[in-house]
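Morning - beta-D-glucopyranose inputs below, output right after.
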Amino acid sequence: MTGATTTAPYASEIEDLLGRMTAEEKLGQLQQLSWTGDTGPGEGQTHEVETAARLGLLGSVLNVAGPRHTNYLQRIAVEESRLGIPLLFGLDIIHGYWTTFPIPLAQAASFDPGVSARDAEVSAREARSNGLHWTFAPMMDVTHEPRWGRIAESGGEDPYLNAVFAAAKVRAYQGDDLAAPDRLAACAKHFAAYGGAEGGRDYNTVDVSEARLRNLYLPPFKAAVDAGVATVMAAFNTISGVPAHANPHTLTDILKEEWGFDGFVVSDWTGVHELIAHGFAADGADAGRLSLNAGVDMEMVSTHLADHGPRLLTEGRISEKRLDDAVARILLLKFRLGLFDRPYVDEGAAVTGPTGEARAAARETAARCMVLLKNDGGVLPLDPATGSLAVVGPFADSTDLLGTWIAPGAAGFPAVTVLDAVREAAPTARVTHARGVAAEGHDTGGIPEAVALARDADLTVVVVGEPAAITGEAATRADLALPGAQRDLVAAVAATGRPFVVVLVNGRPLTTDEWLDSAPAVLEAWHPGIEAGHAIADVLFGAVNPGGKLPVTFPRTAGQIPVYYNHENTGRPYRPEHPDEKYVSRYLDLDEGPRFVFGHGLSYTTFDVGAPSLSTDRIEAGALRAGATVEAAVTVHNTGDRTGDEVVQLYVHDVVASQVQPVRRLRGFRRVTLAPGESTTVRFPLGAEDLGFWEGTGEPRFTVEPGDFHIYAGNSALAEEKRTLTVT
Ligand code: BGC
């Protein structure tokens, strides 16, 4: 077999099956079809999925759910096909099945991997009980592109943050035993560098050096593989001219050989077929050949391997050895999931909606994800005893707060609105409401009504942002301002001179410069999921003290993109102490730096994060390579008068290197809760992985070079407190 597949402990079962399968049946295992149609399995005319299952020519189905439907199809495969190999049911359960959790970008903002673990545990329990085995999550595409809609599905711009969240989510979906009735196989996607799409345009070209591939895009995938992820999905983009679906370097050399990945690679939706449109494959047979030979094991939706595989085998364009390897990988997962022993799901035990406990988890995690961007004069938190509140804006009374991926059926469980939750949280207040403007479009006719309410209220909450439909896949925006006339609404409320706060509900960084100075307080709530309103009210009224931080830079304007904290220095960097210098790398018509930096987020209390202290200030490179670490200890102190959360952040800069290094790289973070006056010390071990980098020229090699490293501690990427570590 190619790669490092170890089929133990099911080696003999798999060998036995392979020995009995025809070439067509083997190719059939590589096929995944989507359930499409107005009716479920068994309810209408015979569907191609049923026919293929009966003939033993189907490995997996996506987009079918529910115990009755999955059992119906499974019975066909297990009881009517020649070899009775069970089907694998997959679905995009990205941030919840029934119980919609905050979008993944929001989850990353919690800087608490426990948030993603809770989403994954609840999702796995709900989905597995409904007959599903496999989720196409987590997504871990590092990106510097806020225009790219799929940033909503990712952990933002930092490889380390993405890696920590990816590993936590994989472990929580999969648990210790994939055969357990409350676990799902996970899928690390999209492999690789999808977030590098030029201009942020979805599916677009990515031209990336080997160094950047390995230092920026691959670390979360490596972490997911180390955490035991069952599957990996290929990406839609090219990587330096080679489509990811036909890239032996990434799929086989790195993933399967170098990392020893023993799971299988699934194509993305028609990703094999799209090799033709890329101009990489001549026809369907060629597309099938290229993708299988590169390392794709299962074809989603398009059918080139099943259609042309027999001929490709006869002509020697694909090998039986590679085919057997792909089939073995797929069968291995079916064994691990226990499907040969228990192919059906208990129809009486299906979770049929969000439980109280699941809702509580969604509410708590959503509040943990929110980022207080600005709070001048302590206008937040609000007093629940306030006499009157106006709640205005297109999202004030909207249920469009679930975010980009809503599992089928979850639409039956809409988000709690902000208006309802404010009324609940401030039962004695007079709460008024007007939309003012729609989420999109330029009609400003409703603004006077909203302004009248704002004039009349002690304080106004303006809820603005993005409809979920303009975030996620195929939802690139060229402009990152609030859509439509929402800016006009904010400006009109500001012009009343009355106190107000802005709540943002969105799937990507937005530009806020047109109105930010006029707004006393801004809460970034993202798309918070099913308990949206409650979680927002929890933060607005101070039941929860916000502690989230930005997992991605917020630009001043779209023209400044890409702007990200972990950039390299030019030979002519901008120097704040010489603002008038001409020949430096900057925009003439824009202030230097982003609007909100990576890692930024305020609290209702204040913190002091001290300088890091190092267990030693000198260490040998050889010792680091042998596993030694240096401990950086950072003391954080709650200097305010409320209990609150701070995220201690540790950044590293390799000052002089043979390959120019980012000015800062996040290498440690810890979210802590402290009472007023309380302090604690958090400790971060720094080893070779934290101080080294992948060299991109010649044979790729991870190296730790001697020299000085600046170790910064603080509560954003602007951290100033630093110590120097010398590697000898
Ligand atoms: C997306 C994947 C998703 C797949 C299946 C594709 O369009 O890129 O992320 O898992 O569809 O729905």
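Note: Residues 71 and 344 are 6 Å apart (CA to CA).

O.
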